[in-house]
């Protein structure tokens, strides 16, 4: 077996129970290294662990990274850290498994509660419907309409552009525009909220021209809630694949 070089970080990981199988094997096959580890056992392991991972994002940040809650800047920082930290990689993998389990038994109804609140306040709820794209001419560029979805309710139109993740990425980006077909010069004021499994993920303002954007969106089905002064639009079952 080739020699496996150990450093202080490997010993800390071993004491914290987070060492890789290769590190565990290397430590436990060396009597001298085991003696060094046993001598360290008198130290407070939790303190040892905190020193070892003092530069790592905390669990809350890793969870927000996994579900796409972080800002683009912070998301990039955590992603860079993960590329060099097997311990955080393992923690994110565990959080992903927990997230999948919680989704299957989720009882969160934030979207329903919000709609009930708006109805009680006398707001009009407009459920948009998907508008199939028009047939493309034979000379149209392949993929020209890929990722673009249009929804409509009464005089409102919602156009979504879903930008898939690039190579090595796992999260997509959603950009959109709200249009008032009856009054194209409308200046919008309102907010747009992104829901998944009935729970609120993100909320952003709509600019006066109706534009909005959500970054770091994982795969799955989503709902949008667009709150305007007089009415509220819903866009249901947006698939990010």
Layout of strands and helices, then pairs:
Elements: H1 8-15, H2 21-28, H3 31-40, H4 45-52, H5 59-67, H6 72-82, H7 86-104, H8 110-120, E1 124-127, E2 129-131, E3 148-153, E4 156-163, E5 172-180, E6 190-196, E7 199-206, E8 211-217, E9 220-228, E10 231-240
Parallel strand pairs: 1-10
Antiparallel strand pairs: 2-3, 3-4, 4-5, 5-8, 6-7, 6-9, 9-10
Helix pairs in contact: 1-4, 5-7
Task: Walk me through this protein's architecture.
The protein is built from eight helices and ten strands. It is of the alpha+beta class. The protein folds into two domains: 97 residues, no CATH class; 131 residues, Immunoglobulins (Immunoglobulin-like, Sandwich), CATH 2.60.40. It has a five-stranded mixed sheet with strand order 1-10-9-6-7, covered by helices on one side. It has a five-stranded antiparallel sheet with strand order 2-3-4-5-8, with no helix packed on it. Helix 1 crosses helix 4 and helix 5 packs across helix 7.
